[in-house]
Amino acid sequence: NGAVSFGSPLQVLDKNPPRFPAFVPLYQQYDLDRGGNVFIKVVGENDAIDYALLTRSSLNIQNRFHQNDFRTRSMLIISFDKLLQAETDRVNSFQVVISQGDNATFLTYLFEEIECDTAVSGFSSGTEFFELPFQLLTNRSNIGEKG
After folding, report:
1. Which pLDDT tens digit goes with each residue over 20-62?
2. 91: domain range?
3. Would you say residue 38 lies in a domain?
4. pLDDT tens digits, residue range 59-105?
5. Whose CB has fewer CB within 10 Å in the chain, the N or C terminal residue?
């Protein structure tokens, strides 16, 4: 369904945003039986092979958000790859990246390919939902880059 929830699963696409903590990059009804994959990668400081990802994350956050002392200690990367919107041939690929440092955590949504015509995007604190304008997802961001 294109969301990451905490405490309760998101069952069926609903027009109402979730009332529990959730990251909602592209909430839509998908048909995984017809194709697409969801990958989860955990990166920590002990992962020598993936240490470059931590460095890249740190530099991006330092440069984009002016957090000069931020250092990414761990990351959770959830990749939604070539998901097919239910009852269509529309393909969607996107990522959720959670970068954790000593005193702060940053959430990044990366949109590679969006073909769906409607979806909900945003995040829920559990009591409030902040919705991102769907029509701006692929062309705008808060860091001056597309997607």
Report:
1. 788 889 988 888 899 899 999 999 998 888 899 999 999 999 9
2. 21-121
3. yes
4. 999 998 899 999 999 999 999 999 999 889 999 999 999 999 999 99
5. C
- CA 62, distance to chain mean position in Å, is 19
- Pick from 23, 31, 36: which is nearest to 98 by CA? 23
Task: Indicate the length of the chain as a whole number.
Answer: 147
The domain tally of the chain equals 1
Q: Is residue 1 in a domain?
A: no
Residue 136 falls inside a structural domain: no
Q: Are strands 129-132 and 37-44 parallel, antiparallel or unpaired?
A: unpaired
> Tokens for 11?
């069952």
Determine the Cα–Cα distance for residues 5 and 17; give it in Å rounded to an integer: 12
